[in-house]
Design goal:
The complex is a heterotrimer of chains A (about 325), B (about 220) and C (about 550). Chain A is of the alpha+beta class. Helix content of chain A is about 35%, strand content about 20%. In chain A, strand 1 and strand 2 form a beta hairpin. Chain B has one domain: Cytochrome c oxidase, subunit III, four-helix bundle (Four Helix Bundle (Hemerythrin (Met), subunit A)), CATH 1.20.120.80. Classes of the chains: A alpha+beta (about 325), B mainly alpha (about 220), C mainly alpha (about 550). Chains B and C meet through helix 1 and helix 5 of B and helix 6 and helix 7 of C.
Chain lengths: ~325, ~220, ~550
């Protein structure tokens, strides 16, 4: 379910106390900014009119020493802005020091998907379910290029580096579903590499961990893998490659080049993904599919096959996850 | 410039300058500005080499053991001698001794050439010892220490860049020597020798930095 | 031609009588007209025009790429083009606009043309080197455009490793080589300017009589010399990494991809001041001329230029607050970034104080200057938001950043470029442009610019990341608004191209000093003779010796 939207909002929802404080910080800074700049705009406009060539205004110099003026308008705005440096630095340092009892969720980014690993073992693709009311630390790494995990609702992001872990911690106080993005440009599908973070009451989160959420999320996860591994790029209608459609394939008969007809079951699909050169298809399909042996871990292969089982038509397969509570932004 | 110029030695004023003094000052400031940019270029590279050493000390030492210290040391002496002959050329140019200046310039070019020959032999020895990790076709001798190739490859980037500057420098020097041998050169273009001499000294300086940073510090 | 300008009393624009030398072979434009005389020229004024023509061409290419980007973003789902096409479009927009338009724009055109004139010299110190710099520039452009023609590059103008070195399948190498080569063009220009300003000032032209335009170009040239070599090293390492897998940025061998970011931004932050300082120099010439009043706080503005060029070297880490650098580094870079705002603020307040009690004419150059002041202030202060650590954690890599730098680069530098182009057009060409068209275009550009980029501040704070080919549907309204603004902006850009070219044949002939401005370039004919001055120019008693002098000129002893 996509987050609902209001047409004229100016800032996203803030789900944590630090997010709200960040909003306050920028609001206060904006007030100072206006105090420092509006006089300039007003002055220029006023002067342009009042001192127009030929006007009768008084152009006698005022006699105030200019060095004093200069030093004042250098020092005073600078010292005022430093207030915001300190405030911002304080929040920043807090955000870099997670409490030791924070719940740790591992986040692995790669082109072009996120995999989240809950401490109890469940994993999610692109979407993330989390409880409110307790500190959460995301422990982040990349498997290829530099990505970044960005959650506007908590006003935080951090890079996902390929050679070491980085961390992001927060404590959410409001339930709801919000955007989750990759914010470091990482290639072709950078803008698709995201999903939703859903904050839930602790009880609902436990429910989700144990049954409903894991199951409901699996189809969405499978779909995400179907796209992330590039299957969609060739097997969807409209592709230049014209690979056979996988919609409705599971359980149907498949004609092979050597004259046999087999049923596309779990085992056959698994073998074909890992070794596409085997069991070549009849009907003039040229074999160009690359092998995914060594490229797709076993658990993800299982999730992908589960997706294909339920994949009945291209339109129905579009990314849609079900969250138990009604989604807000 | 310290010593005054001998009679008949000088610079012909280009038309956009107001005076010869202005022209000489501009040329000197210009070459110094250029050399500062070159120094920054190499310094950034040496900084990356030092960072590599700080991040991977054992791998760097293992790699540095394969460097040919004595060829590097000999080359250092060769370049210092070439700076000496270049300084002599500058002095001779000021004194108006054209033939001696030309010989000193040729000696400088020859020493620079000797450096490149020794360097070429050193690269051949590196190739022979499988110390060229950037050649994917040739197995790297220290492949089991992945970080070793960082230092080795930086050594190539730095020394190749220096060799490129030296090669270009020798080319310019030979061209200038050919012009400087002609009659009347010293009365019109004496400061070219000084300006060029600064460039040559700089090439020497880069090597004097490179040798300790690459060969010595990591032993 | 004669010296112009009235002293004392209210300033008046010079009457129509042309005092130009058009038609006389002595001016630089008409002295020779063969192709050879243009493409092998060593006259700094002709070289400036070579640059003007080429950077205008590159601006058009960069703008077309921007058009592709804004077109794609009209719909949220990427239906108009593939993600790869989009990625290539924004990459080439950035590469071309940064290196082939913004960096050379004011220095290589106005700087080249005006610096010798402003200091009373006949040419730059190294005229042949000047021509060489243009050929190096074009060679760099050739390599970069080759990569576009071959199929494009999609790494973003920042070329972060390991995406650019090991994962992108596009034509990264020719683009990297092109950018490396064009860096040498900057270095040669900077070198020429520094040496010229130090050694070739006319007798009596002391440092504190120089126009601020010269001070800002001197400061810019220091950055050219000290920053550019570091990006050269960074790009050489990137090329070696991509071509030979040397490992320096590859974690598999213990290399550090964030090291590339440090090397890159050590240059690229000062580079944005290369893009900003010359524009400040232009505004510092226009405002006093159209207020007929001495620049307020001349010495502070001069020192602020050097101050900017110094402090700028110590803030590069503010591009990397969330990229994994140490917290201490982030704290230091944030604090220094607050400090670097001070010299810019000095200039803005000084320009405003110059306008106070001046005698103002709102011709096209002044409209651009006033627009510049407003937009640059907004762009600069949003930079302070980005320098605030906790705010940065939210708006880094969002459209807020995109809006911030476009306010400075377009609202600032491009407006300064256009203002300067109109201000000095009579001097360069000997013709006056059409003033009504000039004003209409300036207003159209100001309007189109704000409609395009102000919504992007909001988009950024709402959380829309940058470099996104597709985006959540709720952002569509603001994106469509931004794209609509881009069409207004494009129309605004087209008008000057037309009426300025038109004026070359049909414009009113310009006198030596149509604006009654001060500065040695106005003491010679429009266009100037090939050797700039027929008689050695008289160095002024004080800089900005305008009819209206404020009290502080007596305080500062000229």
């Amino acid at each position: 379910m996509t987050p609902s939207h209001e047409a004229l909002q100016l800032w996203p929802a803030a789900v944590s106390a630090t997010a709200s404080e960040t909003d306050l910080l920028i609001l206060a800074f904006t007030v100072l900014t206006l105090l420092l700049t509006v006089p300039v705009f007003v002055a220029i406009t006023y002067f342009a009119v009042r001192y127009r060539e030929g006007s009768e205004a008084n152009r006698q110099p005022s006699g105030i020493r200019s060095n004093l003026i200069e030093i004042s308008w250098m020092l005073i705005p600078f010292l005022l802005t430093l207030i915001f440096f300190v405030w911002g630095a304080k929040l920043f340092v807090q955000s870099k020091n997670p409490p030791p009892d924070a719940m740790v969720v591992e986040a692995i980014g790669r082109q072009w998907m996120w995999k989240f690993q809950h401490p109890t073992g469940q994993s999610e693709i692109n979407n993330l379910h989390l409880p409110i009311g307790q500190p959460i630390r995301l422990h982040i790494i990349s498997q290829d290029v530099i990505h970044a995990l960005y959650l506007p609702a908590v006003r935080l992001q951090v890079a996902a580096l390929p050679d070491r872990y980085t961390d992001l911690w927060f404590k959410a106080d409001k339930v709801g579903t919000y955007h989750l993005y990759c914010s470091e440009y990482c290639g072709t599908d950078h803008s698709v590499m995201g999903g939703e973070v859903t904050f839930m009451n602790p009880g609902d989160y436990q429910d989700w961990l144990t049954h409903a959420g894991a199951q409901q999320g699996k189809v969405a996860a499978g779909r995400a893998l179907y796209e992330a591994y590039g299957c969609a790029g060739c097997h969807e209608p409209g592709s230049a490659v014209k690979a056979p459609s996988l919609a409705g394939l599971y359980g149907s008969p498949v004609k092979l080049a050597d004259g046999r007809t087999v049923t596309a079951d779990d085992g056959w699909l698994r073998d074909k993904i890992l070794n596409p050169n085997g069991d070549r298809l009849a009907e003039g399909y040229k074999q160009v599919m690359p092998s995914f042996a060594g490229r797709i871990p076993a658990d993800e292969l299982g999730t992908l096959i589960d997706f294909l089982k339920s994949y009945s038509s291209p339109a129905a397969g579009k990314a849609a996850d079900a969250t138990p509570a009604g989604a807000t932004r | 410039m310290s010593a005054p110029l001998a009679d008949g030695v000088g610079v012909a004023r280009a038309e956009h300058f107001e005076s010869v003094a202005q022209q000489r000052e501009a040329a000197t400031l210009g070459i110094w500005a250029w050399l500062i940019t070159e120094l920054l270029l190499f310094s950034a590279l040496f900084l990356v080499a030092l960072i590599t050493r700080i991040q991977h000390p054992e791998a760097t030492v293992a790699a540095a053991k394969h460097l040919k210290f004595w060829i590097g040391a000999t080359n250092t002496v060769v370049l210092i001698c070439s700076s000496l002959t270049m300084s002599m050329a500058i002095e001779f140019s000021r004194m108006g001794w054209q033939r001696a200046m030309v010989r000193a310039m040729l000696a400088t070019a020859a020493l620079g050439g000797l450096f490149l020959v020794l360097k070429g032999y050193e690269y051949y020895a590196d190739w022979d010892e499988h110390m060229m990790p950037f050649l994917s076709s040739r197995p790297f001798a220290l492949a089991e220490t992945p970080a070793a190739r960082l230092f080795v490859n930086l050594y190539y980037v730095a020394t190749l860049l220096h060799a490129l500057h030296l090669f270009t420098g020798i080319g310019l020097l030979l061209g200038m020597t050919w012009m400087a041998a002609k009659a009347g050169f010293l009365s019109r273009h004496q400061n070219w020798i000084e300006v060029y001499g600064l460039y040559w000294h700089f090439i020497d300086l880069v090597w004097i930095l490179a040798f300790p940073i690459l060969y010595v510090v990591n032993r | 031609m004669s010296a112009s300008g009235s002293i004392g009393g209210t300033a008046r624009r010079e009457p129509h009588a042309p005092e130009s030398t058009i038609g006389r072979k002595a001016d630089y434009l008409h002295a020779e007209s063969t192709l050879r005389s243009w493409f092998l020229t060593t006259d700094h004024k002709r070289i400036a025009l070579l640059y003007l023509a080429s950077i205008t061409g590159f601006f058009v290419i960069g703008a077309l790429a921007a058009g592709v980007v804004r077109l794609a973003l009209i719909v949220p789902n990427g239906a108009i083009m593939t993600n790869d096409t989009y990625n290539k479009a924004f990459t080439i927009h950035g590469v071309v606009m940064v290196w082939f338009f913004l960096i050379p724009s004011i220095p290589a055109t106005f700087g080249n043309f005006l610096i010798p004139l402003m200091i009373g010299a006949k040419d730059l110190a190294f005229p042949k080197l000047n021509l060489t710099s243009w050929y190096v520039f074009m060679t760099g452009a050739l390599f970069t455009l080759v990569s576009v023609v071959l199929g494009g590059v999609d790494t973003g103008w920042t070329f972060y490793a390991p995406l650019s070195t090991a994962f992108s399948n596009t034509w990264v190498l020719p683009a990297l080589i092109g950018v490396t080569i064009v860096g040498f063009s900057s270095i040669l220009t900077g070198l020429n300017f520094v040496v010229t300003i130090h050694t070739m000032r006319a007798p009596g032209m002391t440092w504190f009589k120089l126009p601020i335009f010269v001070w800002t170009h001197y400061a810019t040239s220091l950055i050219f010399l000290l920053a550019t070599p570091v990006i050269t090293t960074a790009l050489i390492l990137l090329i070696a990494e991509r071509a030979f897998h040397i490992g320096v940025f590859d974690p598999a061998y213990g290399g550090d991809p964030v090291l590339f970011q440090h090397l890159f931004w050590f240059y690229s932050h000062p580079a944005v001041y290369i893009m900003v300082l010359p524009g400040m120099g232009v505004i510092s010439e226009i405002v006093p001329a159209f207020a007929q009043k001495k620049l307020f706080g001349y010495r502070f503005v001069a020192y602020a230029s050097i101050g900017l060029a110094s402090v700028t070297f110590f803030v590069w880490g503010h591009h990397m607050f969330v990229n994994g650098q140490s917290d201490l580094a982030s704290l230091v870079f944030s604090a220094l970034s607050f400090a670097v705002a001070v010299p810019s603020a000095v200039k803005v307040y000084n320009w405003t104080a110059t306008i106070h009690k001046g005698s103002l004419r709102l011709d096209t150059p002044m409209l651009y200057a006033m627009g510049y002041i407003g937009l640059f202030v907004l762009g600069g202060l949003t930079g302070l938001y980005l320098a605030t650590l906790a705010i940065n954690q939210h708006i880094h890599a969002t459209y807020f950043v995109v809006a911030h730098f476009h306010y400075i680069m377009v609202g600032g530098t491009v407006l300064a470029f256009l203002g300067g182009l109109h201000f000095w057009w009579p001097k360069f060409t000997g013709r006056m442009y059409s003033e009504p068209w000039g004003r209409v275009s300036a207003l159209l550009i100001f309007l189109g610019f704000n409609v395009t980029f102000f919504p992007q501040f909001i988009l950024g704070y709402l959380g829309m990341p940058r470099r996104y080919a597709t985006y959540p549907a709720e952002f569509q309204l603001l994106n469509v608004l931004s794209s609509a603004g881009a069409t207004i902006l494009a129309a605004g850009y087209i008008f000057p191209m037309l009426y300025l070219v038109y004026s070359l044949w049909f414009g009113r002939k310009a006198p030596a000093n149509p604006w009654n401005a001060k500065g040695l370039e106005w003491e010679t004919a429009s266009p100037p003779p090939t050797h700039n001055f027929l008689t050695p120019p008289e160095v002024p008693r004080i800089p900005y010796d305008y009819p209206i002098q404020a009290q502080e000129s007596r305080d500062q002893h000229g």
